[in-house]
Amino acid sequence: MTWLKGMIRKLELALSNRIFWRYIYYRLFGTMKVREGKDSLLAETITEVKYQVSKGRWVSDQLYCINPLTELVLRRYMRMKRGVFLDIGAFVGRHSLEVARQSRSNKVYAIEPNPLSFRLLKRNIGLNSFGKQITPIKAALSADDCKIRFIVDGAVSRISSGNPSGSVAVDSLSLKTLIRKNGINQSRICLIKIDVEGREHCILEQICKVLSRNKSLDVVCEIQPTARTKKKSLELMSSQGFRIRRIDDSNYHFSKRV
Asked: Structure pTM?
């Protein structure tokens, strides 16, 4: 019955939120504002944030194929004022832009290694005039500072252990180096989003070590149900004093208050 209670809670949140009804209106009547260019789509989303994405790529579906219930719950845990947000695996910037929109006092660092996604991320920051709030960083996060190779297929990418055709070299930084190189005020980091296709455990370990003194910290993390390190990651966060909330099959919210 736990899943039923969770679904009822999501429905309650949805029915009381104007964004949900705007989403339904868009889906029923096709009124999402979209302009087609030769190679791209420019759209204004349900929260009035503008995105440009590559036409003909699966990335374009991100403008439409959004689960409104999951988005509402995610948005509940991704509220911030006068703090620093680390968007690790920023993609084209949906969450970075949303957090920047919440308050002009918010500072966002959007970390994305995929060259195509990074270009779109920078473009979307400019489209929304968030250049002073959002700093895009073209890099991956890992345990060490090194070069790694990514296999890139449009907006989809994954780490390669070799040097296959179609792969590109990108910088990989530890969390400690990322903070130092970009002059990030470590004590103000209060929100982190992680979407790194299976490498989340390494990053969670660094968060627990580097940000152990932060008084208030929320982490929203995607962990696939089949991930080999899922149990290990949940045990790690629990042992470090984080409260764990399961958002859906793939997303978790970790919170700590000192």
From this structure: 0.81
